[in-house]
Amino acid sequence: MNKNEFIKKYAVERNGTDSLKWDDLEVRYKDKDLISMWVADMDFKTSEKIIESMISRVNHGVFGYSYVPDNYYQVFSNWMENHHNFPIQKEWVRFSTGIVTAINWMINIYTNPGESCLILTPVYYPFHNAVKNNNRKLVTVDLKNNDGYFNIDYEATEKAIIENNVKLFIQCSPHNPAGRVWTEKELDTILNICKKHDVLVISDEIHQDIILGDKKFIPAAIVSEGKYRDNLITLSSASKTFNIAGLLHSHIVISDENLRCRYDEYIKKINQTETNIMGITATQAGYAYGEEWLRNVLEVIRDNYEYVKTELNDKAPGVILSALEGTYLLFLDLRNYIDPENTKEFIQDQCRLAIDFGEWFGDNYKGFVRLNLATNPKYVQKAVFNIVKEIQKL
Ligand SMILES: Cc1ncc(COP(=O)(O)O)c(C=O)c1O
């Protein structure tokens, strides 16, 4: 299937489907007529293989309690091994209704109220909320921003860890919204700092399959031949990979026995072990048969990114784009053109776009906006057209 056939078959209008992204604009942005490019899901139907397996499950008609079958673990492990060199053992895997839920659990299990948790900003805003809502101290360290290419500031990070007696680091890999796919060396350096100071690492790898450039995604658990496994927990899901976030199913992978025991002790007080049948069905089908769909959707996202880059570099060269090595979330720095205080007026009222504002990801990112490129190219073209037109008027 070529790209145009894929778009014809899978791109959908989502208005009128109770979609958070499209139908909630009036509530979120006080304007229902914007082009929606915020929240991280795609405007494409999931793979027909996933839909077929869900239909077949629905047609059975019984939705009683189920357990996770052995072949689920097998298919999950195969995917992880084939794509990311990280075979998973069944005993390591636990489930949650989402990564954000799991992050909240992790904070409660492995830290005490008042203790410090670290994040590297700009970063996915529920990380901030999870720390604050659980009455832990939020420690933020900015990534180094080199013309849109973000790197970890190791020195500042280590200093912040020591000064705040940090207990937990919530890592985002690949990084939303910086777009970075961390190299093994980068991961080794940060994981080593954490280990040295006894900081447990929660590695949120939800974007692991959305890789656009030639950098390979490395799971934290295989860095330096698994050297840091006794000090980390991996969170992953097929929800970004196959656009099935609404099914609320994700993985918590804990290969270290001691960490796993602490998890199990806590979780029996708040969560049952059974999972959502549809989440299991869809994820299993995706990992077994979704490869081609993923390849196609990545091609659309890559082309969308290339389009934005080419157009903006040509017609509004002062806009600084993040390097989109991974994720479908492009971070744009508009500060060469607009006063950061006027970002909302510019991007929403003039350009007519619903986006995620930079300051949601960290205090120092006013004047940045995050654009979701997992959409029909027609919306990307319209968004870029509007941005260029409004910049040229300035
Ligand atoms: C880094 C990151 N983690 C977690 C999530 C959400 O995960 P879930 O829906 O499973 O809570 C997102 C969604 O955008 C994300 O970007």
Write down the CATH topology of the largest domain.
Answer: Aspartate Aminotransferase, domain 2
What class would the helix/strand composition place it in? alpha/beta
CATH class category name of the largest domain: Alpha Beta
Main β-sheet, spatial strand arrangement: 2-10-9-8-7-3-4
Q: Low-confidence stretches at least 5 residues in length (pLDDT < 50)?
A: none
Mean pLDDT: 98
Rg, rounded, reads 21 Å
What percentage of amino acids are in beta strands? 15-25%
Q: What number of structural domains do the residues give? A: 2
Give a quick account of the main beta sheet: strands, pairing sense, barrel closure: 7 strands, mixed
What is the strand tally?
15
* Helix percentage range: 40-55%
- End-to-end separation in angstroms reads 43 Å
Shape type: globular
From the 3D coordinates, which CATH architecture of the largest domain would you assign?
Answer: 3-Layer(aba) Sandwich
SSE layout and pairings?
Elements: H1 3-10, H2 20-23, H3 25-29, E1 35-36, H4 48-60, H5 70-84, E2 93-96, H6 99-110, E3 116-121, H7 125-133, E4 137-142, E5 144-146, E6 149-151, H8 154-164, E7 166-172, H9 184-196, E8 200-204, E9 232-236, E10 250-253, H10 257-267, H11 277-289, H12 291-315, E11 320-321, E12 329-333, H13 343-350, E13 353-354, E14 356-357, E15 368-372, H14 377-393
Parallel strand pairs: 1-13, 3-4, 3-7, 7-8, 8-9
Antiparallel strand pairs: 2-10, 5-6, 9-10, 11-12, 12-15, 14-15
Helix pairs in contact: 4-11, 5-11, 6-7, 6-10, 12-14
The protein binds pyridoxal-5'-phosphate (PLP).
Pyridoxal-5'-phosphate is lined by residues 40, 98-100, 124, 172, 176, 204, 206, 237, 239, 245, 250.
